[in-house]
Amino acid sequence: MTTEESGIKRRKFLQVLGAAGVGSMVGTANGPTVADAAAMQVGTRPFGRTGIQVPILSLGTMFDTGANQLLLRQAVKWGVTYWDTAQYYNRWGSEPGLGKYLAKYPEDRKKIFLVSKSTNRDAAGLTAELNDSLNNLKTDYLDLFFIHAVDDARAELTPEIKAWGEKMKSRGKIRLFGFSTHSNMAKSLAHAATLGWIDGIMTTYNYKVMTTDEMQRAIDACHKAGIGLTAMKTQASSSWVYMGVESDASRSLAKRFMDKGVTKEQANLLAVWTDERIAAICSQMNTMTILKANTEAAVNQARLTAAERRCFEAEARATAANYCAGCTAICQSQLAAAVPVGKIMRCLMYARSYGDHFRAQVEFRDIPAAVRDRLGTLDYAAAEHQCPQNMPIGRLMAEALAELS
């Protein structure tokens, strides 16, 4: 990277992180500073032009919600009432657990912005899965329904999908319709902004990917189109650094925030909340400790200093080769066989960064055996050469095969 290119990227990063002013929020590691824990209440932002206000913190529920009813109850008390689920989360246990809660506390249903999703791409499959979700959740409507894991919006958001969404809205089964995306996010967001019928999008968005010109243009196009935006994967966890192993830049960034009583995880949320075009952050909060820490981050306000913004930029630059930015259309197009590089990277992330080896293995084994068997035999040189992050793709595919089979 030239000195001039580095300067441009640095200026763009500071512009994004410094743009929000009053939207800069962070909690302290020692607890709330503006209210005690019992009185905490998460604030809201407009969800695009839908007329709906949503909490800036969303509860990701890829865990055993049936066994965590007290956590759900506390989330409601703290205003964390944007709940994100899917029929296959926690291997089909998340929705029934939420349904168990709503059956016990039906008065809370109107407080909750309830979201589920489907991997189907045809009307019949979407209808079947939506009906199953409504049954599991003990509700007769969803506030938002996503087509899940879109990586080519131009090809996947068909007229059939549009007609289906409008039909379900007219029947009162869903209020809003949209999609989630983990890969090739900017291109999918940019196309969605031109359609006129997408209400909401959940996208990977964190301090490592949020400052590219392409992503900023896409986010801005969606914002101007009135699409409600939810950020996920906000912790920017590496897909290939083993759990507990950090770079010097990462340790330096973590220490800077810990010295002022803020955890690195809370600071990562802050970096995204500074962008007021983002309505909410979805975070998997499967323990009361995580829920409390993230709620504190949402409730308490402190400015992100220029020095702290520079530290984020330095860490993102220093660790670029350790993080998959989701631009899988680039690397996958260079391979002799169809390999879901992005999905495999997420599996490694679940195992190494989240410590969730079971989930990583289950999702890895969902990949057809014929594809998995070829991972160790393909030539990845061209894909690695084209990767903007300079990732060691071949080594990581071989490691995934060895660790997750």
CATH H-tier superfamily of the largest domain = NADP-dependent oxidoreductase domain
Calculate Rg over CA atoms: 20 Å
Helical fraction:
40-55%
- Please list the strands of the largest sheet in the order they lie side by side: 3-4-5-6-7-8-9-10
Structure annotation, total helices: 18
Distance, first to last CA: 38 Å
Low-confidence stretches: 1-8, 18-35
- Write down the overall mean pLDDT: 88
What CATH architecture of the largest domain would you give? Alpha-Beta Barrel
**Structural class by sheet pairing and helices:** alpha/beta
Q: The biggest beta sheet, please?
A: 8 strands, parallel, barrel
What fraction of residues sit in β-strands? 5-15%
Q: What form results from the Cα inertia axes?
A: globular
What is the structure about, briefly put?
The chain has 405 residues and is of the alpha/beta class. Helices cover 45% and strands 12% of the residues.
SSE arrangement:
Elements: H1 3-18, E1 44-46, E2 53-55, E3 57-60, H2 69-77, E4 82-84, H3 94-104, E5 113-118, H4 123-137, E6 142-147, H5 153-156, H6 159-170, E7 174-181, H7 185-192, E8 200-204, H8 213-224, E9 228-232, H9 248-258, H10 264-273, E10 280-284, H11 288-299, H12 306-318, H13 328-332, H14 341-352, H15 357-365, H16 369-374, H17 381-386, H18 393-404
Helix pairs in contact: 1-12, 3-4, 7-8, 9-12, 10-11, 14-15, 14-18
